[in-house]
Design goal:
- The structure is a single chain.
- It is built from nine helices and no strands.
- The protein is about 80% helix and about 0% strand.
- Helix 4 crosses helix 7 and helix 6 runs antiparallel to helix 9.
- The relative contact order is 0.12.
């Protein structure tokens, strides 16, 4: 009986393994649960976070590009203001010079038409000098050319500014400069005709004098009385007629210069208003 009791009290090797086996099963079950499949909520939040990160990056890049383009636009507008101010200065100079030429011609045209007396001949020389007082327009189009060549007209976000700028540029290129070219061609014809009519030595001598000095000059004050190289009345009349046409184109140049000057001034004020420049 004692031996039987003793055998009962001693655990078997199988009994010793049971607790360990149960513990292993619990650990195995816990590990399987930790590494299980993700549910749809997890995937949704991961997608949302990734989407927000990409979208915010896109917004930041777009805002940066938008800021850079705004800065470039204002830079172009400031440069354009300088060009337009240069144009207005050139227009004002053309107006002054051609107005003066028209007034001087009108005061001398009778002498040109009938250059018989020494004083009339001298006045014909004076009128012939007016061809030399020519104002060539230098278009300040560097900013417009940069906008056009680089395809940057799109940077101008103000439709009224871009439309006015395009119209101004078209008028200058296709109308104003064309009229100036016609006037220049007329002056070249007159210069060719003058070589047959006037003595170069006297002409050059008078050309070195200021107009204020020419006004008080008389034929008696000259060492040599001025003379014409030809006496053909038909050629002199033809020369006078060409001069009258030149005077008409001078008057047109004045009108277009005044219009262009006002147009440039309006464009300057529009740019200052739209971009809040002082």
């Amino acid at each position: 009986t004692a031996e039987s009791t003793h055998e009962v009290e001693q655990p078997s090797a199988l009994d010793e393994r049971k607790p360990s086996t149960v513990q292993d099963m619990e650990v195995h079950h816990h590990t399987h649960t930790a590494h299980g499949k993700k549910n749809w909520k997890t995937y949704f939040w991961e997608f949302l976070m990734l989407f927000l990160a990409v979208f915010c990056g896109f917004l930041a890049e777009y805002q940066l590009e938008h800021t850079i383009e705004n800065q470039r636009e204002k830079k172009y507008m400031k440069s354009l203001l300088k060009d337009l101010k240069n144009d207005t200065t050139n227009f004002a100079r053309s107006i002054t010079i051609f107005k003066s030429n028209v007034e001087k011609f009108d005061s001398l045209k009778t002498s040109i038409k009938h250059p018989l007396s020494p004083e009339n001949i001298l006045n014909s020389y004076k009128a012939a000098l007016l061809i030399q007082y020519f104002s060539s327009f230098n278009y300040s189009d560097r900013t417009i050319e940069q906008l056009r060549n680089a395809g940057n007209f799109r940077l101008i976000r103000k439709p009224n500014v871009s439309d006015s700028l395009i119209e101004y540029d078209r008028y200058i290129r296709h109308t104003y400069i064309a009229i100036e070219n016609i006037l220049e061609q007329r002056s070249m014809v007159l210069l060719d005709m003058q070589t047959e009519i006037f003595d170069y030595d006297i002409y050059h001598f008078l050309l070195t004098k200021k107009w204020s000095a020419l006004q008080s000059m008389t034929s008696d004050s000259l060492a040599q009385s001025p003379k014409l190289l030809i006496t053909d009345g038909q050629k002199l009349t033809q020369y006078y007629n060409y001069y009258v046409l030149y005077r008409i184109w001078c008057q047109r140049m004045i009108q277009h210069s005044e219009y262009a000057k006002n147009d440039a001034t309006r464009l300057i004020e529009l740019i200052k208003k739209e971009y809040q420049f002082e």
